[in-house]
């Protein structure tokens, strides 16, 4: 009998082993399918990223073309201004040479050159007047008649000299010769050949003696009037004949011209300065535009990666839910099979690693669903400082300047990750130096228009907790500053870095509505500055410290388009004592509730489903039965999160992958009347 009993037990054990082996085969097949789907998703992601990168390159090429065109226009305009300035300089030089030549000519000309005013008084006379025995100083301000023979003053006429040579007839009265011309506003002036000199007897009578002849030839040239002395065969100088003008107007015109020239220089100079200023302003605007364009391109790239990551996360979390959920259920049947338990443990470890990888992808894409809450960043900073003192080389000094007790909205684990990542990078930058300094500072700051941080002009005004992590290392090359937050960018050797560290940091900060900027110099090192909005309120959290799984006997309706996930959730809840009905169609689910609205005590629905999403299904169900509690379950969705779940009417948001503890605790809490704005009880 004992043998038969033993045989019967062995037969049962063999059946259990066969069943477990069958389930394990199913798990292996599912893993193989998962791997294939993951490879396909990876190929699709690469294709989308390549397409988006090509579009961005085309946009960058168009922008470069516009910039080159604008630079060419600025160059042409600059050359035109330079040519205008050169032409103006030549004209000024020519005018100065002309003025100098004129002054030299007046000073050296043998003719008498003078200027009189409208009343006939001398205002200028050159040194040639000394030939008449006067000095310029004597005549200045005196009337023109001073040098005219008094008895001939009334006989001065306007006789015209028609040619360079004239025959003058003998007359009873002294002969008077004038040169008269009118041009514009010129005064009609002339030189009387009978001029009164200091030695008037010699010059005057000498001339009269020659002029007593029947005919006298007077030659007029540019140097004066002459007559030939037959006795001595010498040429006698009797006066100066020329075009005598009042050159005040000309001098006035010259002054006007000089003033106009100066005004033109001033205007050109002002215009040039204005153009230079405009060009400077344009250059600054162009630099700002290029900077904003780079930030926009970076944001678009991150948005594209985030969108793809969100889609992958949803599908991948569904797969992980199936794997991890059924592995968790299989542990209940593997207590006596050590090898099976070890295999299941390895699967569970790998699945959880995949879950953490998805969290990282969502984090650097700024789509993490980690819960954030008010916390004191200074407490996390102090914990990190204690840890750093025992992990980084002793050659690196650590400076603690944490002076803030302000609260921020963040996830404690993620904030710890920010500190450790940046501090580790700082230590790595100083690892080959004899000594270095790692400084972590924190302070409260009230930002307004008067103290907006450089590099973050768009930051909202308000109170912030500002965290600075700096080192005295070798710095970051300028060419890499725009790339350090991109996923998978790293300067470390292969095997020493994934390139996700700063991407994750950037995503966490953005997910907390914060800002981050970096400055780096090869001489002084690198400094990261983080701005977290400060908060003062606290949020009460409901904690469940029970170690056993909550149970119940209520009726639960599970709606998920993935049959394996619906099956998994149903099994977990059935093990907890609940009665579970499931369907893979949201339309069928709505129809069942419409027919029997009192048949269920709780509905668990997936978010992303064909025909009708969980976001739309929940309000439809509540229209039929307003008091029916609903839990929305999702691997990831950009349309719903813990802040928008209330709009659907659902009581809670359950994130995949689903485990027994989280699912059973949330279901029991909801059935007991609790409502969660977060994801976990």
Automatic annotation (TrEMBL):
Gene3D superfamilies: 1.10.287.130, 3.40.50.2300, Histidine kinase-like ATPase, C-terminal domain (3.30.565.10), PAS domain (3.30.450.20)
Catalytic reaction equation(s): ATP + protein L-histidine = ADP + protein N-phospho-L-histidine
Residue ranges of coiled coil: 3-37
Boundaries of every PAS domain copy: 98-150
Alphabetical list of Pfam families matching this protein: HATPase_c (PF02518), HisKA (PF00512), PAS_9 (PF13426), Response_reg (PF00072)
Domain Histidine kinase: 311-536
EC top class named in words: transferase
Positions of the Response regulatory domain: 555-671
Enzyme Commission identifier(s): 2.7.13.3
MF term (GO), any: ATP binding
Name by which UniProt lists this protein: histidine kinase
Modified residues (4-aspartylphosphate): 606
Keywords of the record: ATP-binding, Coiled coil, Kinase, Nucleotide-binding, Phosphoprotein, Transferase, Two-component regulatory system
